[in-house]
Amino acid sequence: MPTPRLCPSPHHGPRPPGARITLLVLHSISLPPGQYGGAQVEQLFAGTLDWEAHPYFQSIRGLQVSAHYFIRRCGELLQFVDCERRAWHAGASQWQGQPNCNDYSIGIELEGLEGGPFEAAQYQTLTALCHELAARYPLQHVAGHEHIAPGRKADPGPGFDWALLQRLTGWPSERLVGLWSEVP
After folding, report:
1. Alpha helix locations (H) across 9-161?
2. Whether the bond into 55 is cis, omega within 30 of 0
3. How confident is the model at residue 183 (pLDDT cuts 50, 70, 90)?
4. At a CB cut-off of 8 Å and minimum separation 6, what does 151 contact?
5. SS3 of 72, please?
6. Catalytic machinery residues
7. Which of 164-172's residues contact partners 24+ apart within 8 Å by CB, and which partners?
8. Within a 10 A sphere around the Cβ of 62, how many other Cβ atoms?
């Protein structure tokens, strides 16, 4: 796995006592939407985004969010929150009847547009990260934000290749929610 570049975020908190990390949640983000390679996502998660720098930023002004990891289109890996801490990536969410996915998940943001395609380098980094995290935590599932907050979120969307992630990780389809015909 590539060594992540550390970019500390102030947007995190403690996990509940006894929380087990069993879920990876995949997201997509670009700021402004559809623009890649800039520092704006990093600044948003670090709490330093200049809200006046682009008209779109007014619609997210004051947002306090983070993820554990961000994978740029070139495959570069950034880490914002230690996995032992609760990042603020899922919002109002639930998985298999358990609310507050932030409590028991690790959030991974992929640089991209909701529904758009992702780069081979991103899948390579994501695969290595999935294996690393599975060696450290009792992961049971990998889900998209769309699966844990249906109707509210739609990322990473239909452009994410779940079958490719399955081939690259070698994990069974039961582990990758995006391959399920029906998501509970």
Report:
1. 40-46, 120-136, 145-148
2. no
3. low
4. none
5. coil
6. 109
7. 164/123, 165/123, 165/126, 165/127, 165/130, 168/123, 168/124, 168/127, 169/127, 169/130, 169/131, 171/130, 171/142
8. 6
pTM, whole model, 2 decimals?
Answer: 0.96
Inter-CA distances, 184 with 42, 91, 143, 145, 150, Å: 33, 18, 12, 14, 10
Question: Within 13 Å of residue 137, how many CA atoms lie on the same side as its CB?
Answer: 20
Residues in the chain: 184
Could you tell me how far CA 66 lies from the centroid of its own chain?
9
Contact 89, 100 (CB under 8 A): no
The number of angstroms, rounded, from the C-alpha of 105 to the middle of its chain's C-alpha atoms is 10
Decide if 28 contacts 155 (C-beta within 8 A): yes
Partners of 141 in the beta sheet? 23
What amino acid occupies position 132? E
H or E element that contains 168: helix 162-169
129: amino acid identity, one letter: L
85/104 Cα distance (integer angstroms): 10
**Per-residue model confidence as pLDDT tens digits over 101-122:** 999 999 999 999 999 999 999 9
Contacts of residue 182, defined as CB under 8 A and 6 or more positions apart, other chains included, come to none
Q: Are 90 and 105 in contact (CB under 8 A)?
A: yes
